[in-house]
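ugh ok so i messed up the first submission bc i forgot one of the chains. this is the corrected input, ALL of the components this time, i swear. 471 residues overall. if the numbers dont match what u have on ur side tell me asap before i send this to the collaborators (the ones from the other lab, u know who)
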Amino acid sequence: MTRTLWDSSLGKKTVMAVSGLIMLLYLVVHMIGNLKIFFGSGEFNHYAHWLRTMGEPFLHYEWALWIVRVVLVAAVVLHAVSAYQLSRRDIRARPAKYVHRKPRASYATRTMRWGGIILGLFIVWHILDLTTGTVHPGGFQSGHPYQNVIDTFSTWYGNTIYIVAMLALGLHVQHGFWSAAQTLGAGSATRDRVLKTIANALAAVLTLGFICVPVAVMTGVVS
Amino acid sequence: MKLTLRVWRQKNADAPGTMSTYEVDGISQDMSFLEMLDTLNEELILAGDDPVAFDHDCREGICGACSLVINGDAHGPERTTTCQLHMRSFEDGDTIDIEPWRASAFPVVKDLVVDRSAFDRIIQAGGYISAPTGTAPEAHAAPVPKPDADFAFEHAECIGCGACVAACPNGSAMLFTSAKINHLNVLPQGAPERETRVLDMVGQMDSEGFGGCTLTGECATACPKGIPLPSISAMNKEWLRATRKVRR
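and heres the new structure output, hopefully the right one now
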């Protein structure tokens, strides 16, 4: 059955849909966690520490966090590899373009591939910035995420990269959630309107929820 | 009406093609698009030139033979087949671009004619039912619920013209394949091959070199028979069900 899935274009799309939904679920949780920054450094840092102790005493320190990390890396890799292979297939299937061209499909639909690449690059920067601290502006302090977040969003490039990436995320989620639902067979004439509404709502909530953090730092609401 | 036509001319499958410009005059608004091309071809023949090759058959909008991309739209600006498109949809003095279906699975044979036998092979892979031979069975022997009959009929309307593939930026045949699968899979007559049908037809679709679906919705917009976009989701559901049920 694994072979059937991976060898078929529909199977690869299923892999894309499921891995995308896993990442989407994570993003909703991540966004809610981020919003704790509005309740001050104590609550935010306490929440960040809990992420490492979650599951104790059944799980050892940081085990739960590492399980989440492994699942996410697997999802990103599967999503990217199937996207690459499916895109190659799509481009091969339509080698000659029409002379008479018309702009088609929504902006979100047309930017799925480049948007995905932007998000991939953003994830690398985001981890190097706020998880490992490799490219963090100022001194990265492990265990003081509140201060680290403020450092990042006190630079113009930190804000620019983050906000552009979150806009790309919104577009990607808007078309991606709807497409994933169709791929998994949830689409029908009666349900499509609801699915599109959920996709639009998810895209808007995630984008606004993430962007309000740098905006709050820029405007001094969080300092 | 006087029109300027820019038509894709290509001698054969291996020759490079190009857009050639022609002027046609004396076109009536009541002519169909194909009759307008007939007029052009008569002039070309009288002038000793090679007439423009294009597919057509019934000219009643039910056979699926006609296939032109007109000003970037499969079957032109109206939601119908090219043979049912009339010149009243255009203005006097218009320039009209006419191109063949574009997809690597539909190679150009000559001018505007493409080879659509990939669709035939998808049908051969499972677009049939196992029926006993002999006299026709009693029509009421296999009851079909009304919603299922409607669903089957909606998809049975597909005439296999290939406009979905031509309109899709990925050259995907998913709307065609899903119409054929859904039409038979929902009916009791199609039940014996329900799982193998979807697996084999999707497998054939993949091996013909069609692209995948990215839900742009261009296919359903271009379809002259109004096959809806959720057809593809229904096919995906059937395919996922079949992969769980069938061990191979």
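quick check: The longest strand of chain B covers residues 3-9. that seems consistent at least. The CA atoms of residues 32 and 134 of chain B lie 43 Å apart.
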